[in-house]
C-alpha cells in the first residue's frame, strides 16, 4: 500500500510518531519523534534530533515500525519497512532533510535523517471501535475531550 492521501493527511495532523527499532542484542526500543514527514510515494523521513539508540539500532538492523495516531479520534496508522540513516555529510542529506526543516525551524538541529522505505501500511484503531462500533465520530471526540480535559478550538 502506498502512502495515499488518507495516510498523508493523518500523518500531517499527528503531533508525534513512535519509531520502533531492534538492537543487535534483540532488545526492542520505541521512542517518540516529533519531526517527521512523508517523502516520495512510499517513504517517510524522520529527523534525528536526539536519537542515538534509534540510529545505532537501524545501522544494526534496518527493520522498523512507525506508528502515529490522532489521540482524539483514537485511530491512525502503522507503517513497517526498512530504514537507513543519512548523515549530514551524505550526498542526499539536503534532499531528504528538506521536508523536515520547515518543521524543525532553527530550534532543532537535524543530526541525521532516518529514511524509511515503507513496505506495509495498516490501520490502527483503539479498542473502543470494537467495543462500541456504533459510536459516531462526534461521540468519540466528545469522550476523548472529557478524558483529556480539553476543548476543541473554535473555528
Describe this structure in words.
With 155 residues, this protein is α+β, with helices and mostly antiparallel strands. It has one domain (5-148): Pnp Oxidase, Chain A, CATH 2.30.110.10. Helix content is 30%, strand content 37%. The protein contains five helices and seven strands, in the order H-E-E-E-E-H-E-E-H-E-H-H. The chain has helices at residues 5-13, 52-60, 93-104, 128-131, 137-148; strands spanning 17-22, 28-33, 36-39, 43-48, 63-70, 75-87, 112-125. A seven-stranded antiparallel sheet has the order 2-1-5-6-7-4-3. A hairpin with a 4-residue loop joins strand 5 and strand 6. The model has no long low-confidence stretch (mean pLDDT 93).
Question: What is the 3D shape?
Answer: globular
Q: What is the SS-derived class?
A: alpha+beta
Instruction: Supply the CATH superfamily name.
Output: Electron Transport, Fmn-binding Protein, Chain A
Report the count of strand segments: 7
Oligomer: single chain
Q: What CATH architecture would you give?
A: Roll
The percentage helix is 25-40%
Listing every helix as H and every strand as E from the N terminus to the C terminus, the arrangement reads HEEEEHEEHEHH
Which value, in Å, is the CA radius of gyration?
Answer: 17 Å
What is the CATH topology descriptor?
Pnp Oxidase, Chain A
Q: Count of helical segments? A: 5
CATH class: Mainly Beta
Amino acid at each position: 500500500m502506498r502512502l495515499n492521501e488518507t495516510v498523508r493527511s493523518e500523518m500531517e495532523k499527528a503531533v508525534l510518531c513512535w519509531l520502533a527499532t531492534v538492537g543487535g542484542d534483540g532488545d526492542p526500543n520505541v521512542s517518540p519523534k516529533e519531526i517527521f514527514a512523508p517523502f516520495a510515494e512510499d517513504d517517510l523521513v524522520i529527523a534525528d534530533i536526539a536519537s542515538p539508540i534509534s540510529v545505532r539500532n537501524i545501522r544494526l538492523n534496518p527493520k522498523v515500525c512507525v506508528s502515529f495516531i490522532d489521540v482524539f479520534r483514537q485511530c491512525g496508522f502503522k507503517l513497517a519497512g526498512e530504514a537507513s540513516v543519512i548523515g549530514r555529510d551524505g550526498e542526499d542529506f539536503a534532499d531528504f532533510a528538506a521536508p523536515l526543516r520547515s518543521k524543525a525551524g532553527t530550534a532543532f538541529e537535524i543530526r541525521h535523517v532516518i529514511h524509511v522505505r515503507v513496505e506495509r501500511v495498516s490501520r490502527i484503531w483503539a479498542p473502543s471501535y470494537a467495543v462500541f462500533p456504533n459510536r459516531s465520530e462526534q461521540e468519540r471526540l466528545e469522550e476523548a475531550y472529557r478524558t483529556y480535559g480539553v476543548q476543541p478550538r473554535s473555528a
